[in-house]
Structure formats: C-alpha cells, structure tokens
Design a protein that fits this description.
With about 170 residues, the chain is of the alpha+beta class. The chain is built from three helices and eight strands, in the order ααββββββββα. The strands form two sheets. The protein has a five-stranded antiparallel beta sheet, with helices on one face. The protein has a three-stranded antiparallel beta sheet with strand order 6-7-8, covered by helices on one side.
C-alpha cells in the first residue's frame, strides 16, 4: 500500500519505523508504570493519615462534648461505670462499657468507640455526692489519651453544702 501511494503521488511518505514505535511504547510504559506506583503509594499514605485523623477526631469530639455538658450542668455525679451531668431541664449520662461509651440525652444517643480505663473521681466535699474532678484514660486503636474534667460550681452549691453539714 505504501509503495502504491509512492507511485501515485511521486513523493516519499514520511512515517515512523517499527523500531521507533517500539521504543516509544517502551518509554511510555515506563513513565505510566512510575506514575501509577507514585499514585498508589500516595493513596496508601493518604488512607493511613485519614484513618488516624478520624481516630483522633472521635476522641476530640468526646472531650469537647463532655466539657460542654459539664459546663452547662449544675451538678456532676460519678458512679463506677457512668458520669451524670444534671442540669435545670436536662440530664446527660455517659455510660462506660467495655468497648465503647454511650452518651444519652433526652431524645438522642451518641456512641463513641473508645475504651475508658482508670476512672477516678474527686468529690468536692467528703459528705457530698457531687464530683469536682474526674480523670480517666481514653483508649482508641492502642493510643491512650488522658482526660481531666474539672467542674466549677457556683458559690450557692458550696453554701448549700455548708448548710447541710450543720
């Protein structure tokens, strides 16, 4: 066919030789293979970083919610497996199970897949059930995050406690 076109037009047709095409295919394959290797490596790096971010974000969300609930509550009570925040119109309870934490409010429930260990409580007064400080260790994916929550009570709470003692 190429010879027929050369005869008809009288000009030599410019084209790539088979060797030039093979060299181009080999070089293109190497570049594409390198680019795919870099892509897969970066994708794995991103996925590992994203899972770590998600893990830390859940712990930060729990801490933020507990702090907000504690600040809005009038009283804080700590039992062996739960923390209760009692407010004027609402009560929020954090229940600690073996593998997760459940936050229960009036019409909603949140679950955090975090393990709690070393739950410790400091009462504001030896004769009271009110807790002044709670410490525990939150564990997520073998990482440990220490929590310390301090409740600041209004002066009327301390005044009422002193009245009860008398």
């Amino acid at each position: 066919m190429v010879n027929n076109l050369k005869i008809i037009t009288g000009k030599k047709i410019k084209a790539f030789t088979m060797m030039e095409l093979l060299v181009t295919i080999v070089i293109s394959s190497l570049v594409i293979g390198f680019a795919l290797g870099v892509y897969f490596h970066l994708n794995n790096y991103y996925l590992k970083g994203h899972s770590k971010f998600t893990e830390v974000n859940e712990v930060i969300s729990l801490y933020s919610l507990m702090n907000t609930d504690m600040e809005n509550a009038r009283e804080m009570y700590v039992l062996s497996d739960r923390i209760n925040f009692a407010g004027i119109n609402t009560s929020i309870c954090y229940k600690f199970y073996n593998e997760y934490i459940v936050r229960e409010q009036q019409f909603s429930t949140d679950t955090f897949f975090i393990i709690v260990t070393n739950l410790q409580d400091e009462k504001i007064d030896p004769y009271s059930d009110l807790s002044g400080q709670v410490t525990f260790i939150a564990e997520k994916e073998k990482e440990q995050y220490p929590f310390t929550l301090k409740k600041k009570y209004a002066s009327e709470v301390y005044f009422n406690l002193s009245l009860k003692k008398k």
